[in-house]
Amino acid sequence: MMTLQIEHLCKTYPGGSTALNDVSLTIEKGQFVVILGKSGAGKSTLLRCINRLVEPSSGEVVLGGESITSARPKQLRRLRRKIAMVFQNYNLVKTRSVLVNALSGCLGAAPWLASLFGRFPQERVDEAVALLNDLGLGDKLDQAAGTLSGGQQQRVGIARSLMQKPDIILADEPVASLDPETAHSIMRLLSEINQKYQVTVLCNLHQPELARSYGHRALALANGSLVYDGLPAGTTGL
């Protein structure tokens, strides 16, 4: 079972700012975990320490019994393929097509020459087309990603993450830039993906009402410390 363990995780940035202070968690496969907290609480740092986009100052992150924190480059690349990320600002190549952006989720597993030239097996292209159709983007395949609405761009980002075939999706404020109706549609989509694929989802939010609507479990961070770990219904007043 692909359990994620976070043990005594700390992060202090140059200059002495503490972003994470002794955070310990165990997250079982298939959970939908929402992480609440104000700006600067440590939410984004926590997600980025999990996949080592940010290096922890101390502590350990273990996925399926393997330490991410102490992994050497080759092992880290392999472990990162199991962890996809969805970003607030989408992180798409806006001048490239929707299909090419979705296919970029395959790059980590592709042979280096194929990665260099962006060439993908036809079966992966067919898979991406089917996935984009499922996400309501079938008529946008050849359209430049930057011409889409915010909600559509986030769906492309989610498609890219699914093409990675991850065990975990880290969603960093995926609806912060969206209107309320679109935010709910993206949260419903993440919930459906969680249930359909049994992919673990860790989702940073600053809206407790969304946490209560979609999460199985809620965490709250304040000043880098874990101050709540329980049912989303208990987040009233946070």
TrEMBL record:
Task: List, alphabetically, the GO terms of the cellular component aspect.
Answer: membrane
Q: InterPro entries, per this entry?
A: AAA+_ATPase, ABC_transporter-like_ATP-bd, ABC_transporter-like_CS, ABC_transpr_PhnC, MetN_ABC_transporter-like, P-loop_NTPase
Against SUPFAM superfamilies, the record matches this protein to: P-loop containing nucleoside triphosphate hydrolases
Under the GO molecular function aspect, what terms does this record hold?
ABC-type phosphonate transporter activity; ATP binding; ATP hydrolysis activity
Q: What Pfam families does the record tag this protein with?
A: ABC_tran
Q: Does the keyword Manganese apply?
A: no
Q: Which residues form a coiled coil?
A: none
Where is each ABC transporter domain found?
4-238
Q: Keywords in alphabetical order, please.
A: ATP-binding, Cell membrane, Membrane, Nucleotide-binding, Translocase, Transport
Supply the Gene3D superfamilies for this chain.
Answer: P-loop containing nucleotide triphosphate hydrolases (3.40.50.300)
Protein name, please? Phosphonate ABC transporter ATP-binding protein
The record lists the organism as: Candidatus Nitrohelix vancouverensis
